[in-house]
Amino acid sequence: MKKVYYLLFCLYCLLVSTVCLAQTGSDADEKPQMATGLRADGKIWVVVAVVVTILAGIVFYLIYLDKKVSRLEKESQR
Amino acid sequence: MLHRSWWKILGVALLLYAFVAGFIGPVPAKPILNETIRNLYFHVAMWFGMMIFFIVSLVYSIKYLRSGNLKHDWYAVEFANSGLLFGVLGLTTGAIWANYTWGKPWSNDIKQLGAAIAILIYFAYLVLRNSIPDLDKRARIGAVYNVFAFAMLFPTIWIIPRLVDSLHPGGMGNPAFNTKDIDSRMRLVFWPGAVPGWTLLGLWITSLRLRLKILEEKKLIS
Asked: How many domains are contained in chain B?
């Protein structure tokens, strides 16, 4: 049963990506100002690093909580 | 299922993809929006997460009403909690985004109002449920209210915003975001990355709260 869920999820991802690629975006005539240079050498990677660090912190905290709850569950079973 | 780890790892991996591709990936150039269009991966994903959790909460409330199993009631509450967390985050991030694109954080836009009302209705669910000391009565009244809360959620965030003009893209008959505003490159980050990623992270938080709740209730009974 679990394998079926897993397969369904993979199928969803595959389907979605093919559907997405099949569509083309529309370009506006005049070009609004975008931070294209900023992305290349404007240190946007620093922002990515900060956000990923926050995500890592949250994930480690969740792993810690997960383990703690697991320990409590084991104790209550005894 | 709650104790498995594969979906937790998958969720984190998808979020990593959404974050890196969300900042570095190409986006269409739009006036006013500029780079803030990237908020789609974070702000809009909150609403998708909220909607999914409220639907799951509704399913468990109905399950409780059919079975009388208290465990279903706990599931319904915890999923409503997570839905509220995502909803409040969606409202806050929306206000920040609006401040820099529409000029002010709150412009009484119909979608802002609808979402705020929906969130208040769900807060009332928690207050109502916690105000009843009797376990079975609390669960039953809570479950019935949750069904009504969902019945109110639908018009406030899905129906009324489509009938009235809105500052949000894709008002007047279209979904929450205009399909012409984002292109295939953005969809490739949003649908397979941001939406399932954030939802799985929320599910992880919910699963932890649920396991704690089950432990607590066990202690109370024994």
From this structure: 1
